[in-house]
Fold:
Amino acid sequence: MKGHFYRPRCKCNSKKCKCGASWAFIVDIGVDPKTGKRKQKKKSGFKTKKDAEIAAATLLNELNQGTFVNEKVVLFEDFAYEWLSIYEGTGKVKESTIRVRKHEIKRLLDYFAKLKLKDISRRQYQNALNDLKKRGYAPNTIDGAHRTGRMIFKKAVEMEVIKKDPTEFTYVPKQQLTIEELEEQNVLPNYLEKNELQRFLSITKDIGLDQDYPIFLMLAYTGLRAGELCALKWRDVDMSEHTISITKTYYNPTNNKKEYKLLTPKTSTSVRVIDVDETVINALKLHKSIQMKVIMKHRDIYHNKDFIFTHMDDETPGYPLYIKKIENRMRRLLKLAGLNTKLTPHSLRHTHTSLLAQAGVGLPQIMERLGHKDEDTTKNIYLHVTKEMKKEASQKFKELMENL
Structure:
């Protein structure tokens, strides 16, 4: 296959061109399987014929080697949403993850929306990441945008829309941490000490709103995530065996009572069966008897889908509680108990970790109970508690020897 070289007609329309008309080439690149007609590749903009010949030779070599990619003229914005459709269509991605990817695409659109995919260079892509840092975005946010960008361009290469992936060799700019920030990294997350938890649950039982006591008792005694608690159904509880099965999580980004969804858990290890004691079982039995009265009262409109913790109002009875409501209720109770109001339902998960460590439960068993495959925060809490216990044991031995 040979190339045809020519000079396109320029604006000045003169045989002795003075406006710098460039050289171009045409090369046959095969046959269109749909029409049977030959396909050609045209390219212009070369200053000299020699430059055009070199470019044509490179293209012909790619054709011979089977590495040629006929790059498509596709805008980044169009392909990004095409990729998202493919990504979503796999059926392996949770709706909450799709929502995150959409946000990350929007950040990339600030830089590439109307650019042709094939024209985006490594320098442009790196500059975009650098600019996100300058604009004050958190490292995790920039990481997320980069992760989505890499998936988009990798798919474009795979589909032969572009030749090269501009995200290759780029890096996420890291924030230089201050001394204060470095010190804060070593600070453990907030959780309740044993006596504080007793006070919190006592206040909850005495002056909590309806369902408060079983909700916060469950969170403290099981280490459940708030989303796992909201998704619990009575069929998940085995009253005779004293176990609770975790198989799903609650998703409702708009906090609309009726527009909830149940999704698969965070990770495969999040699917688990938790042993609970009589305290939890008895609280659930009492809660169920109260709920049955609500069901009878609103039997014509009750959203009877077997949920344990539900709205009990006259308008949407039976719909599962949403996470924001539990957070608000906890803040109220913490204030009444004179405790740190910045604590969240997730803090009770950390509290559970701490108390299990104090009780002598090993880290592998704690991780299994919490549904963790690997979690640095849990490890840090465990190591902190056990370290203090070792110090206490050493001090007790010292006191013993001194009293001999």
The two ends are 100 Å apart (CA to CA). Residues 194-391 form a domain with the hpI Integrase; Chain A fold (CATH 1.10.443.10). The beta strands are 3-6, 23-31, 38-46, 237-238, 243-246, 249-251, 261-263, 272-275.
